[in-house]
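Record filed below.
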Amino acid sequence: MLVHPQFDPVAFTIWRWPIHWYGLMYLTAFGLFLWLGNRMVSKPWNAARGWTRRDIDDLLFYGVLGVVLGGRLGYVLFYKPSYYLSHPLEIFAVWQGGMAFHGGLLGVLIALAFFAWRRGFHFLEVGDIVAPCVPTGLAAGRLGNFINGELWGRQADASLPWAMIFPQAGDGLPRHPSQIYQFLGEGLLQFIVLWLFARKPRPMAAVSGLFLLGYGIARFTAEYFREPDAFLGLRAFGWSQGQWLSTPMIVGGALMMLWAYRRQARLGAAQAH
């Protein structure tokens, strides 16, 4: 069986300041967002709506606030509300870890709504610009989880070629490297599908809907291989907290795509008359 390499969480040190791999993953995610976002706004149909590179810079600023604040508060409310109710000052101790994707998503949605209001764009149009630029950041985050040896998978059959022992788990059991599964599914595969889909003009909300649908399915599936949080365990139907939080994304994404294409059909019929 493979054994997790036990990477040093500190990539390098600058003037006695440790630079952690996870922080570098965040920087990578933000850099990729800028690069991909600039490519999105350069597409003729987006440029014609008034999108500029400055908008992407501002979106990154709002998005970072949404990710950090929403991710932290989501972890506090979704996963350990009773603990942080008893230790409120630790809510601000983000260096101790504890970020939730679904909370970060809600934070980003609020940030995007504020940006749309300030700039006069439709909220769903903003979502369609942002959605294809997100999966590479998710991939970077899951790579950071693997480097840190955290969020490991459930026990796997020892005959599985890539079964891995995570010493941090403390039990010496072979496990699924679920961080890599999520890196591939929520990250790379999701990016390829969304980027190819967004290469052509699509009805408003279709790209955003596909992101929600695709991420929800990928996360729901990966949760079958990921070790549930010890303080939560499994919920109803044997689903994890992550699966329950992903289910509304799947339903909402499918409904958004259905609404987008029906709306386009109605608009096309009205113009024909």
DSSP finds ten helices and five strands in the chain.
